[in-house]
């Protein structure tokens, strides 16, 4: 309790420090947008109003692409849907408060529904990022064609113009767009720095690891897309009112691509970069495109290529790089919790068969794992060990036979659902989050236990003692604030192991967890695993090639050979078995 109170106090202080900077910046920007109309001519006000609306659109693209890794050309579709919903209502039903309110509501709801649909189509299980990007190209094309086909109803290629709009005047539209931009930028800035913002970056960095931490990546992506679709629609409402004209191009993928260019030039994953990129390019474009329409596009194109080649982080990349900020969070030990024991099997595998085309990798595997057991799977290279772990942790793998976890058939369940059943998996090649610090990775491993805040970053991380021991014995506890990209191979292995243990799964699947560690570190980690299983009732399946290590810590050994489970017995039985000797000596003769 005291720890939590302390953590909130520290976190509040950090939040206040960041908040003060943000507040000052916001106040300055607010003063500029409120006073701007006093010294800007009408043309400049109109252009900057549009630029600031575009800046909000660029931030939506940055949140999707820069932070979450969803390269989308389709934000224009949601913007166009919002703008056209507004223009159609005001053209065909007329102005007045009620109709403005109706237009406002529909300009948000319709794009949100469309975005939810696009998100659902784009992020089904095992869809690729390329597929999502292609969908994002198709949607604006379809929408633009629908507008063209709409005849006088949609204004076809001429668009809609001359409809009644909210009578605010150029100066107040400028102020409204400016205030909306400041609010949206500030909100986005707070969210991307929060723990929830780290979840977005986790999905960008390593969606597979995120899913295997139990994070429902597709749901997060669809939700984000839906919310940002609504915001794009709102921008469309503002645009249709301030500009008094809508044309099919605003819904097209050309405009969607322009937003990508603004974001890349300004600087991905920085919020302010894309906003300034949009304002700068749109404003300069308005000034210059009249006198040199084609050359201007050429300049932007060359600038884009040059930036991608020489300053991939965009304009913000020219600023001095900020070091990973602030004090690393404190680690707090959770009280040891015994997993419920009992005689029933946690995991039951019966008749498992897995084939890739005609190549049978696993055949006729039967296996039971009970609470408190540490089972090691041994066998020559290519015997099917990793494939077995993959089948146990991803129910969408095409297999024959049955796998049940605590009596629940895992067939059809994606990894995040299987995590919820209590299975944690450590991969053969350490799978962590490259752009994050050690502490951030650990925090993400606790996502399913502690809902990440949208507003702040917690200043403590609660971890089970076994995870703390792993961190301490490999020295990772002294590197909490350091980026993962600078860690050695062995350190990454230990970090991933600590992350999996931090999830407190009932059954831990470990694929060569100590590869890259020293003999002494291996022994110590072996002790931790032994304590976890024998004292605390966790179960573990371990793949290891170091037979001495395996002998020390395992209760049972399972031998896989050419996809078949050829032996399942005590360490003594297996190690002294003729069959096992012949398998390994046979391999030696290969
Ligand atoms: N996606 C795939 N498509 C086709 N074949 C595959 C695929 N994944 C694995 N295999 C094959 O299945 C066999 C078993 O692979 P697996 O990685 O499970 O073996 P392993 O026992 O873990 O080996 P190692 O000890 O070298 O890690 C290998 O012959 C491998 O080439």
What's the helix and strand layout?
Elements: H1 2-39, H2 42-67, H3 75-92, H4 97-122, H5 129-149, H6 151-154, E1 160-161, H7 170-193, H8 195-205, H9 207-212, H10 217-243, E2 245-246, H11 253-266, H12 272-288, H13 293-310, E3 330-334, E4 347-356, E5 359-369, E6 374-378, H14 385-393, E7 400-405, E8 408-409, H15 415-420, E9 423-426, H16 438-445, E10 460-464, H17 465-473, H18 489-502, E11 507-511, H19 519-535, E12 539-543, H20 547-553, E13 556-561, E14 564-570, H21 571-575, H22 578-589
Parallel strand pairs: 3-10, 6-12, 6-13, 9-11, 11-12
Antiparallel strand pairs: 1-2, 4-5, 4-7, 7-8, 13-14
This protein binds adenosine-5'-triphosphate (ATP).
Domain ABC transporter: 347-587
GO molecular function: ATP binding; ATP hydrolysis activity; branched-chain amino acid transmembrane transporter activity
Membrane topology: Multi-pass membrane protein
Description:
It comes from Paracoccus kondratievae. The chain crosses the membrane at residues 21-40, 100-123, 130-153, 173-192, 222-240, 294-316. Residues 347-587 form the ABC transporter domain. GO terms for molecular function: ATP binding; ATP hydrolysis activity; branched-chain amino acid transmembrane transporter activity. The chain has 22 helices and 14 strands. By secondary structure, the chain is of the alpha/beta class. Among the domains are: 24-253, no CATH class; 373-385 and 423-589, P-loop containing nucleotide triphosphate hydrolases (Rossmann fold, 3-Layer(aba) Sandwich), CATH 3.40.50.300. The strands form 4 sheets. Strands 9-11-12-6-13-14 form a 6-stranded mixed beta sheet, with helices on both faces. Strands 5-4-7-8 form a 4-stranded antiparallel beta sheet, with helices on one face. It has a two-stranded antiparallel ribbon with strand order 1-2. Helix 4 runs antiparallel to helix 5. The site of adenosine-5'-triphosphate has 11 residues, from strand 5 and helix 14.
